[in-house]
Fold Multiple sugar transport system ATP-binding protein.
Amino acid sequence: MAHLHFKHIQKQYSSTDGPVIKDFNMEVEDGEFIVLVGPSGCGKSTMLKMIAGLEDVTAGEFFMNGTKMNSIPSKDRNISMVFQNYALYPHMTVFDNIAFGLKIKKTSKQDIKEKVEDAAAVLGLTDYLHRKPQSLSGGQRQRTALGRAIVRDADLLLMDEPLSNLDAMLRIKMRKEIIQLHKRLKTTTIYVTHDQTEALTMASRIAVMNQGEMMQTGTPQAVYKSPENLFTAKFIGSPAMNIFEVFFDGSELIIGSSQIPISKSAQQMLAEQGYTQQKIYFGIRPENIHPGSLHAESFNIKVRVSELLGSEYLIDGDFEGFDIGIKANTPLQPGDNLAVSFDMSHAHYFDLNSEQRIDHF
């Protein structure tokens, strides 16, 4: 089991460079599946390496099961890690790759045999134990790396973008297998990815990171439905949330020549917080914009591109000089006009300067 507590963690490589991790605070309960998600260079892999003991903590404290881990060597942390490149030994069989950590710990041959065979059965590798990595598919290599991690019965499992080298179909399959494996093992897991789809589908809780800062933590549903800041709103969700700079006149949102009506409760909330006659950001997701006939509360969109997503089309267009993404059931041609209406019960509002969410209403 592993209960983790991170208090004001910072990482800085030199006094001349800014911190890679600025102030990371989080508590992880035993058995959780935490996904650290963010763009390349945001610090998520560095954070994982500090947890593993592969990087020193510059400042702050990291506790596991009540014990301060900052100065404890990596080999004594009882942590397993799965890397992006699998890190398999090419001259060893699948059996020996999975068994490697157990052999280092001087585990008995009988225990090794039982643990490896049990892991192989769970991961569908029983028929491949005699093979070497070069004869395996990408998915089989990834399962081998997972097998090596889980046989150690570690308190904590760390995964650093383990699916990024796989093709799209295999990534989907491996996502499901990792979720099922976690449900079976219930090992506390921290999973790093830049893919927000992986974060939404796999996590019990998401931690969104950007430029070394924690932007938001919460369940996938909470982070998707109630982003606390503009970065999270734009990063989480595919296609991305539409964001517009608008002027609140006290009753409507003004954007170009368009006036967007909002509810009385939204008017009151914005007015009470001093946003009357001020610019704010207004956000709405593509699924909450509905194509239809032109009427009093609809708006005209100029189509740029129509992309087939499978069962529907993603329309990229222009709305009062802003990019807008809309989902539609029929294709449209560049230059076409499309009437749309906004479901304002799903509207999001953000401060123009701080980019923080304006309180819920």
